[in-house]
Design a protein that fits this description.
Blueprint: H1 2-6, H2 8-74, E1 79-83, H3 85-96, E2 105-110, E3 118-119, H4 131-137, H5 141-147, E4 150-155, E5 161-165, E6 175-177, E7 192-198, E8 202-209, E9 212-220, H6 231-262, E10 269-273, H7 275-285, E11 289-292, H8 299-310, E12 313-317
Parallel strand pairs: 3-11, 7-10, 10-11
Antiparallel strand pairs: 1-12, 2-4, 2-6, 4-5, 5-12, 7-8, 8-9
C-alpha cells in the first residue's frame, strides 16, 4: 500500500523487467562467447591441420626430388666414347670375340633399322625399345631408346651392355645366341661407295674403295651471306640468296648424277653436310644414308672432315 502510494511499485516492476532483460542479455552474451570460442577453436584446428598438410607436402616433395635425383643418376650412361679407325676396330673385335652359353647374348636394332642411318642430333629418337631389349635391360632400357637408332648388345648377366650408334643401322631383329651378331661393314668403310658433302654454298663428292678415295670432284658457288638492311632491300636480298642456293643445289644434284653414271654398278651413296641442304638434295637423289656433319673450309679438306665424322661410331655403355 505504501509502495503503491509512494510510486515504488512501478519502480520495482521496472527493476524486475530490467533484471530479466539483463539475464537474457547475459545468456545471449554467454552463447555468443561460446560460439566465438568454438569458431576460434575451429579456426585454430584448421590452421594446425593446414600446417601439418603443408609440412607433409614439403616432405613428399623432398622425397620425390630425392628419388628423381637417384633415378637420374641411375639412368646416366656409364661411359660414352666416339670411335673411329683402329680404336673402333679394336672395340668391334672385342665384342665379336665375346662368347657365352646358348641364348646368352642378345643383339637387336633399336629404332628405324632399314640398312640406312639418318643422324641429326642428340635425343631425336622417339623409337620404342623391342620387348627383348626392355626385358634384358630393365629400367636402363630407356637409355637404349635415347640412343636410337642404334645396335644394342647385351648378355643375360648384363656383363656386356652397350649401344652402338654408327653410320649405318642394320635391321637386326632381336636375336639371342651364344655371341653378338656384328658385321664390320655396318661401322667401317667397306667396298665401293660414294660420299657427298652438301652445304648451301659448297659441294664435294668422293668415290671410295674402303678408306681410299679413288675419285673426287667439288666446287663452291657464289651465295650471298648475311645482310644488315631491312625493308624491301632485305626481302630482295633474301630472294636473290634463295635463288642462288637453289641454283647451287641443282648443280649438286647434277654432279651426283654424273658420279653415279661414271661408277660401274649401283654403289651406295651417303649424303652428309648441312641439314637443310642435305634434305633438299636427298629428295631427288635417294641416298642410302644421310647425316648432319659440321664440315667447313675448301671442298676437298671439308670432304675429308665429313668422311671422318660420318665413319664415327658412338659407343654408349648402358
Amino acid at each position: 500500500m505504501i509502495d503503491r502510494l509512494l510510486g515504488r511499485a512501478s519502480l520495482k516492476a521496472r527493476i524486475d523487467e530490467l533484471e530479466d532483460e539483463n539475464e537474457r542479455l547475459q545468456r545471449r552474451f554467454e552463447a555468443e562467447s561460446e560460439r566465438r570460442s568454438d569458431a576460434v577453436t575451429a579456426r585454430q584446428e584448421a590452421e594446425e591441420r593446414q600446417n601439418r598438410l603443408e609440412d607433409r607436402i614439403a616432405q613428399l616433395e623432398g622425397e620425390l626430388e630425392r628419388l628423381d635425383s637417384e633415378d637420374g643418376l641411375d639412368l646416366e650412361y656409364r661411359r660414352r666414347e666416339r670411335l673411329r679407325g683402329e680404336r673402333l676396330e679394336a672395340v668391334l673385335d672385342r665384342l665379336s670375340s665375346f662368347r657365352t652359353g646358348p641364348e646368352g647374348a642378345l643383339t637387336a636394332t633399336v629404332g628405324n633399322g632399314e640398312g640406312a642411318r639418318e643422324r641429326g642430333g642428340e635425343g631425336e629418337s622417339g623409337n620404342d625399345v623391342p620387348n627383348p631389349v626392355a626385358d634384358a635391360l630393365g629400367d636402363r632400357a630407356a637409355l637404349a631408346g635415347e640412343a636410337a637408332p642404334c645396335l644394342v648388345c647385351v648378355d643375360d648377366a648384363t656383363l656386356v651392355s652397350v649401344a652402338l650408334e654408327g653410320p649405318l643401322v642394320p635391321p637386326v631383329e632381336p636375336t639371342w645366341s651364344d655371341r653378338f651378331s656384328l658385321e664390320a661393314k655396318w661401322f667401317q668403310p667397306s667396298g665401293t661407295y660414294a660420299l657427298a658433302l652438301v652445304r648451301a654454298d659448297l659441294f664435294a663428292v668422293g668415290v671410295y674403295e674402303d678408306r681410299e678415295r679413288v675419285d673426287y670432284r667439288g666446287f663452291e658457288s657464289d651465295v650471298k651471306g648475311s645482310h644488315s638492311k631491312g625493308g624491301f632491300s632485305q626481302a630482295r636480298f633474301e630472294r636473290i640468296r634463295d635463288d642462288q642456293i637453289d641454283d647451287h643445289l641443282e648443280r649438286c644434284r647434277e654432279a651426283i648424277a654424273d658420279v653415279r653414271r661414271d661408277v660401274d654398278g649401283d654403289v651406295p651413296l651417303y649424303l652428309v653436310g648441312q641439314r637443310g641442304a642435305v634434305d633438299a638434295v636427298a629428295e631427288d637423289v635417294d641416298p642410302d644414308a644421310t647425316a648432319a656433319v659440321d664440315a667447313t673450309g675448301d671442298p676437298k679438306p671439308a670432304l675429308e672432315d665429313a668422311f671422318r665424322s660420318f665413319w664415327t661410331t658412338e659407343l654408349r655403355v648402358l
